[in-house]
């Protein structure tokens, strides 16, 4: 009986403190079961978030260059290109066969003067779905996983324009071998701008004076210069065609407000023909609104002369003319009086030191006896100048005067920042002789 009373007392005690052996065991089992289930829920939600994140960036192309390079060739009729700009320009300065082929010829029109060109140039701006410059796109080879055969841009004139060229020039400008037809594509600073230049005038055999069409005929050519298709191909497959006459375009002329007329007397551009001497040619015409992104090697610019510490610049004007020789990313050097770009000899008529238009061999043969011994030594030093390689940083150009061996240019002050450029030299006004 005492045992029964003891068991009853124990049950009452456990009940008073909230303990129940069977109930406690049950709660412990429930807690053990709930613990892993909660973490399964949390892990599942985390996986969903991560997968959603990866899917979003995969679809939006936010991956490495390796992923970008696996872009396939566009399907037929797929809209992959857009013509952003078509600039038709006259009078740029391309070179052929080692000599200068364009000497701008200026004519008067009422109160204004402007030059008469010998070159027709198209600057074509294209955007594309590849999110990278067209110049780096290649046709995709699935077996090699490489890209071959780069993009090509060319111009196809309409029949009316072809007929006009036959009447005015006697040939189709766009099929002549002396034209730079943009194959392969020439890509400038902004990556999607391509330049195609076509020589309108022809030279005499000595290369001094171009023969150009009559003024009225040149005006006709310029007025019809938009009657062309801009054709873009990849692996010889057409992926874009734009009629310039209906697309966004601009026919290039220098307006009164954009034109700066400069009386230039500094002799840093003299190479024997006085191309940039105002006393002979007339005032220099500078286009101040020219798009600096389209400047390229060979262009003559008007710029603010950088000020150098501990350098005598008393005979150097505050603004100078110079020619663009080195582009951003290139290395410019001079060895034995010859200009080199990335260790390759520059194929331009201004790449070698000249005196009175003569190279070292010719001058030594014809003129050296006219000088004293000290003068002869100085002349030989002119012809044999050198310069260590200089890398051209972004947003700068390496500028040389045409008479660079005796001038104040990038050899002294380094690559010229784009912001220091006032404009592009387009020609000159009527002068004393032409």
Automatic annotation (TrEMBL):
It is a single-pass type II membrane protein. Residues 282-425 form the Peptidase S26 domain. GO terms for molecular function: serine-type endopeptidase activity; signal peptidase activity. It catalyses: Cleavage of hydrophobic, N-terminal signal or leader sequences from secreted and periplasmic proteins. It is found in: Cell membrane; Membrane. Coiled coil: none annotated. PANTHER family: CHLOROPLAST PROCESSING PEPTIDASE, SIGNAL PEPTIDASE I. This is Signal peptidase I. It comes from Oceanobacillus limi.
């Amino acid at each position: 009986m005492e045992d029964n009373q003891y068991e009853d007392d124990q049950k009452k005690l456990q009940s008073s403190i909230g303990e129940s052996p069977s109930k406690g065991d049950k709660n412990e089992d429930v807690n053990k079961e709930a613990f892993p289930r909660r973490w399964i829920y949390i892990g599942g939600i985390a996986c969903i978030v991560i997968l959603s994140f990866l899917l979003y960036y995969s679809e939006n192309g936010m991956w490495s260059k390796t992923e970008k390079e696996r872009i396939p060739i566009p399907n037929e009729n797929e809209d992959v290109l857009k013509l952003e700009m078509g600039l038709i320009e006259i009078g740029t300065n391309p070179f052929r066969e080692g000599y200068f082929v364009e000497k701008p010829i200026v004519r008067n029109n009422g109160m204004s003067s402007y030059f008469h060109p010998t070159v027709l140039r198209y600057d074509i701006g294209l955007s594309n779905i590849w999110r990278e410059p067209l110049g780096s796109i290649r046709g995709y080879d699935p077996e090699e996983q490489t890209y071959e055969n780069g993009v090509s841009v060319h111009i196809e004139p309409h029949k009316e324009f072809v007929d006009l060229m036959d009447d005015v020039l006697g040939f189709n400008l766009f099929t002549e071998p002396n034209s730079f037809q943009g194959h392969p594509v020439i890509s400038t600073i902004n990556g999607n701008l391509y330049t195609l230049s076509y020589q309108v005038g022809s030279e005499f055999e000595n290369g001094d004076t171009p023969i150009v069409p009559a003024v009225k005929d040149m005006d006709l050519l310029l007025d019809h210069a938009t009657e062309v298709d801009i054709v873009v191909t990849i692996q010889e497959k057409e992926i874009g065609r734009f009629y310039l006459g209906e697309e966004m375009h601009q026919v290039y002329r220098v307006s009164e407000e954009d034109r700066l007329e400069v009386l230039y007397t500094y002799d840093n551009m003299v190479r024997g023909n006085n191309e940039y001497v105002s006393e002979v040619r007339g005032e220099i015409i500078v286009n101040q609104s020219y798009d600096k992104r389209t400047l390229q090697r060979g262009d003559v610019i008007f710029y603010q002369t950088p000020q150098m510490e501990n350098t005598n610049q008393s005979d150097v004007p505050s603004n100078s003319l110079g020619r663009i020789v080195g582009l951003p990313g290139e290395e410019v050097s001079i060895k034995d009086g010859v200009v080199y770009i990335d260790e390759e000899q520059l194929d331009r008529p201004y790449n070698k030191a000249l005196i009175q238009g003569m190279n070292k061999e010719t001058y030594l043969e014809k003129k050296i006896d006219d000088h004293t011994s000290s003068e002869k030594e100085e002349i030989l030093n002119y012809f044999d100048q050198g310069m260590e390689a200089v890398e051209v940083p972004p947003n700068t150009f390496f500028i040389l005067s045409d008479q660079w061996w005796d001038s104040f240019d990038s050899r002294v002050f380094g690559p010229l920042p784009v912001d220091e450029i006032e404009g592009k030299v387009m020609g000159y006004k009527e002068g004393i002789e032409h």
